Amino acid sequence: MSLSRVTVTAVRNLHPVTISPSPRINILHGANGSGKTSLLEAIHLLGLARSFRSARLLPVIQYEQPVCTVFGQVQLADGRLSSLGVSRERQGEFQIRIDGQNARSAAQLAETLPLQLINPDSFRLLEGAPKIRRQFLDWGVFHVEPRFMSAWQRLQKALRQRNSWLRHGTLDAASQAAWDRELCLASDEIDTYRRAYIQALKPVFEKTLSELVELEGLTLSYYRGWDKDRELQEVLATSLPRDQQMGHTQSGPQRADLRLRLGAHNAADILSRGQQKLVVCALRIAQGHLVEKAKRGQCIYLVDDLPSELDEHHRRALCRLLEDLNCQVFITCVDHELLREGWRTETPVAMFHVEHGSITQTHDHQE
Ligand SMILES: Nc1ncnc2c1ncn2[C@@H]1O[C@H](COP(=O)(O)OP(=O)(O)OP(=O)(O)O)[C@@H](O)[C@H]1O
Ligand SMILES: [Mg+2]
């Protein structure tokens, strides 16, 4: 699965443009502020209907313009073509279209266009709040386990009921017990999917990491959000007074986390910046392999400023792993000399020069 055409209008400083990317490696190079990250942001908008830079979409719309739009033609794994379009008006109207039809939700986009983003914010996967690691985990589970979404929705509903009851106590005991049962069932189901996912991810992650960087003793483990030896029902019963005091449920899958440790230490506390970047890349590349294995099409990788923090040896190792993924990859960099060489001759590499918001294709390996 890859984007065979992308049309961008009024996203940040980009002039209206249509590009025909290579199905494999695409390198966007240009000076600071030229618009490289903006193009990745446009593709991200197409896959997730949101930006990775601003919580709100308004700053993405070009100054003075009423609406920004991104269209993409996607070549699906089975060879069919699908067209996606997202547009966001300054007034707040958001539209998602898939094959000419208005789409119900952004989840449908995510299903068609699984994106992996590696950018300077990716460090937060190691050092940020558990929520970021849960999102990472659930992205993976969502793309390999079709039953996950409905279990997750059931959990959210049951949790809302319970938290509202904890705060206001407006539900009778029998109804609340029924909601708690539903909460526990959905939680166990989610835990099963997440656990199976981590079991599959771990060996792929370890292999990927070993090809990138030597970090003896780095371990990845999963915490499910409550005591591993007790049933959630029992945990909820014992923590009820505290939950009531806090006004929300303290234990459950909404508290799950991934732990990355190096020996006795939290990896984020001791790894260098470059090492952290490589660990995050290994995690994200491992996820891509699992999506591919689950035959749900491949992901598209957006790698913003690939060379930063990396020495030549590690930069080459990362490029090789991205190349071996057999995915479409969009890479940005300031100095394209760093990424020009080293690709296999059979890999189609397209290069785009970004200058003051204009994008020109300078090199296409296929030609
Ligand atoms: N809504 C907007 N409308 C017009 N221009 C914008 C808007 N938002 C940001 N810009 C400008 O767009 C330009 C492109 O920024 P972008 O982050 O894409 O650059 P870049 O090529 O990734 O640079 P760097 O190498 O520094 O990361 C910047 O000069 C920025 O000031
Ligand atoms: Mg940038």
TrEMBL record:
GO terms for cellular component: cytoplasm. One of its GO terms (molecular function) is ATP binding. ATP binds at residues 30-37. It holds the Pfam family SMC_N. PROSITE patterns: RECF_1, RECF_2. NCBIfam families: recf (TIGR00611). This is DNA replication and repair protein RecF. The lineage of its organism: Bacteria, Pseudomonadati, Pseudomonadota, Gammaproteobacteria, Pseudomonadales. The gene is recF.
